[in-house]
Specification:
This protein is an alpha+beta fold. It contains 17 helices and eleven strands. Bound molecules: adenosine-5'-triphosphate. Adenosine-5'-triphosphate binds next to strand 5. Monomer.
């Protein structure tokens, strides 16, 4: 999302907060005999390690709750002053009844919710005596013995969960933010409560857009820590799943939809990445053969700066049009000129970040390049002009980069190693025939899959021979 907005010419300030204090962290620290800080720090570092392996750009800021206690105090005091909060026995609660718009994000009405929750007692108010309404929520909690705690106007305690986000948004970004994101499981009560806390103070919308991602599911159930049905990013990467394959796994579904995690889905994302990677490496493999040098490979200053109204004089295509200038280029490949692929990609992404459709554009290009590559390898020529192929490749590299998908050969020989001659293919087919005769199907499947991975499909004929394309 961030890369796309930058590519469209927006300046993006992206703040991502860490909840470094909550009941689960405290329980873990107690179980381990360590401190809350120690547990939080360990998982924050683990998070950075994993997310960077996935090629996710760092946020502009990573505020933590424990670093924003005074901003939290200030907000709670303002809420109290305006009659939206009340203190009782060292706790402070938000009075939902006083906010007439409570429930507007999730489409719930307080009256309906109250009817459905009569007699309900929750863990924040174990005796059911402190809250005036069961949907009032804690802004500040009196400290229990042994818990980390801060002095406050209401006594020693710690912040409730929801207030941290309102306080950090206000402190770091201002009254209204453009986009607020988060998991769909947070719409109620978390985001609803954020709105309630922020908007009665600022009298402005908290966010212009809410982007809620669908849940990753396992057998149609949410993948979660508490259910224990999770596989971590690290487990997947450590067993050899490529970061880009994981990206594809996520991007192939629209972000608002659920995403079912299965081994088959990961395997199919890995296959998809092989196809895309082949396309992304095309220029490094065939640029020389097509007689147009390295196509900008090695030049690292393409298109820096704003995309608006600038003509890229370095564009290798003979034309007058404005070339695309991504805000954050990290590849050494020249940007493409305007073309229907770029338009389709942009149209899909402008439609609430429709990544499945935008990926289809990438695969169309990758498959076309694979076709060209096969022709060049096996016939030594193609009917399509070098300029056209060059544009297709540059388009693919740049659009893929907008989705954080990148592939660069480790060294120049690397790419060539993946190139098989006709004789190589025939030899592999023969080896596969031998394996099949010996009923070693694991070996024969491996050869077929390896060939498929580089774009060579084998077709077994009824007469026992194998042809390929
Ligand atoms: N299965 C999931 N798919 C997508 N996002 C998720 C999923 N589970 C949690 N999130 C998001 O991750 C963030 C952290 O959530 P949280 O710590 O509550 O995880 P959790 O696994 O649901 O925890 P627990 O099971 O202990 O309640 C939230 O933004 C949440 O919306």
């Amino acid at each position: 999302m961030r890369r796309y907005l930058q590519w469209r010419g927006y300046e993006v300030q992206y703040v991502q907060n860490f909840t470094d204090i909550d009941d689960k962290i405290l329980n873990r620290a107690n179980a381990e005999g360590t401190s809350m800080q120690e547990v939080s720090e360990r998982y924050i570092q683990a998070y950075f390690e994993d997310i960077r392996r996935l090629n996710v750009i760092d946020a502009s800021d990573y505020p933590r709750v424990t670093e924003n206690i005074s901003a939290i105090h200030q907000l709670i005091q303002e809420l109290e002053k305006k009659g939206y909060a009340y203190a009782i026995d060292g706790d402070v609660y938000y009075k939902v009844q006083n906010f007439s718009e409570y429930g507007k994000l999730s489409g719930r009405s307080l009256d309906d919710m109250q009817a459905g929750a009569s007699g309900r007692v929750d863990s924040e108010d174990s005796l059911g005596k402190k809250k005036q309404n069961p949907f009032d929520f804690a802004l500040w909690k009196a400290a229990k013995p042994g818990e980390p705690a801060w002095n406050s106007p209401w006594g020693v305690g710690r912040p409730g969960w929801h207030i941290e986000c309102s306080a950090m948004v206000k402190a770091l970004l201002g009254d209204t933010i453009d986009i607020h994101s988060g998991g769909g499981d947070l719409v109620f009560p978390h985001h609803e409560n954020e709105i309630a806390q922020s908007e009665v103070i600022t009298l402005k919308p908290l966010a212009r857009y809410w982007m809620h991602n669908g849940m990753v599911t396992v057998n149609s159930e949410k993948m979660s820590k508490s259910l224990g049905n999770f596989t971590t990013i690290r487990q997947l990467l450590d067993r050899g799943v490529e970061p880009n394959a994981l990206r594809l796994f996520v991007l192939q579904a629209h972000y608002r939809k659920p995403l079912d995690f299965t081994e088959d889905a990961i395997a199919s994302a890995e296959n998809a990445w092989k196809t895309l990677k082949e396309g992304l490496l095309f220029g490094y493999q065939y640029g020389q053969q097509l007689g147009i040098g390295d196509w900008g490979v090695g030049t690292r200053d393409w298109g820096l700066g704003s995309r608006k109204g600038k003509t890229n004089t370095q564009c290798p295509m003979p034309h007058d049009a404005t070339c695309y200038m991504p805000g954050n280029p990290s590849t050494a490949v020249a940007p493409p000129c305007p073309n229907p692929y770029v338009e389709s990609f942009q149209k899909a992404m402008d439609d609430d970040f429709n990544t499945p459709t935008s990926l289809a554009v990438l695969f169309e290009l990758a498959k076309e390049l694979r076709r060209q590559g096969n022709l060049l390898t096996h016939q030594g020529k193609t009917d399509t002009s070098s300029e056209t192929i060059q544009q297709q490749w540059q388009t693919l590299v740049h659009l893929a980069q907008v989705l954080g998908l990148e592939a660069v050969p480790k060294d120049e020989t690397d790419a060539k190693q993946e190139r098989l001659s006709n004789a190589d293919i025939e030899t592999l087919i023969q080896q596969r025939q031998n394996a099949r005769k010996q009923r070693n199907f694991a070996a024969s499947d491996l050869i077929r899959d390896q060939l498929q991975g580089v774009g060579v499909t084998l077709i077994d004929k009824p007469d026992g021979t194998t042809v390929w394309h």
